[in-house]
Amino acid sequence: xxxxxxxxxxxxxxxxxxxxxxxxxxxxxxxxxxxxxxxxxxxxxxxxxxxxxxxxxxxxxxxxx
Length: 65
Prior knowledge:
Elements: H1 6-18, H2 25-64
């Protein structure tokens, strides 16, 4: 692999960073809100699944116990 000197490396890094398309403030805000909404929906889903499994196991234990 060819080695480059540190000055060339820094120039190449700056050229690559200049190609990056940074998100707007609005895009960041919308994405953040969507992440919180999806996390809340996931928490509710797993809470309901936990409640269902707990109720089922309690009913099963009362049936045999």
